[in-house]
Amino acid sequence: MPKRGLNLYDNLYASEDIQEEYMDLTYEDYMDNPKTKEIIINQHFFDFEEHFGEKLKTIYRKHAYLKSDDTYLKDQDMLNDNSFMMFVYDNILKKYNNDFIQNNEILQNIILKDIDFAQEKIQKTKIKINLNTNFKKFDWATKTYK
Amino acid sequence: MYNQSQWDAFIISQTKMRKERQEKDFQNWVKTNDNEMKLFSLLDIINKAIETSSYELKNKNAFKDELATFIYNLTIDA
Questions:
Q1: The total number of structural domains that make up chain B
Q2: Cβ pair A59:B75 closer than 8 A
Q3: Could you read off the pLDDT of A83-100 as tens digits, one per residue?
Q4: Is residue A60, in this structure, part of any structural domain at all?
Q5: Could you tell me which of A31, A83, A21 has the C-alpha nearest to residue A57?
Q6: Domain containing B43: what range?
Q7: pTM of the model
């Protein structure tokens, strides 16, 4: 029976190459780009809201329900739980350099696209400059452009 | 009629007086009806929750005052 080549290691090598590409982009690269920065900041908030926000809202609701009176909080209906969560979020340290950034194809593609776009722009301006200089030549004898 | 420097001085004194009155009102509110104890109990619960999470406060000491101000403002605005 003929042996079938499964090429198990081909994928492994390919993934190693990709990992090397990822390592070229640093945290600063992502934060310098306005699009990726916005995504990272929003993602940080979504994570906070999902994992810790609900806990904070529950803390507030319990506190407001039990401790509200005429002089304190006046929120037995527990309406300000979102404001409370946002207040705590404003007061926590924002560490954006987390697992979300590492090996993230979406972020990487955005940066690479922007780099490609910038390089295209530079090349186009170079061509324009060359075209302009090709048309006019300075004649030293008559001291005029021909 | 007031001249400009007199008017400026008047505005500064009014702003200062308003700040002092707000501070006094806030201090009275904290002392009223065990409000300080309620604030400390909330602060304690939040600190414990943050300690067991992956997050940390920017400034733990300042947060105490920020929390009191936040709850005071909610009370006043309600």
A1: 1
A2: no
A3: 999 999 999 998 887 778
A4: yes
A5: A83
A6: 30-78
A7: 0.69
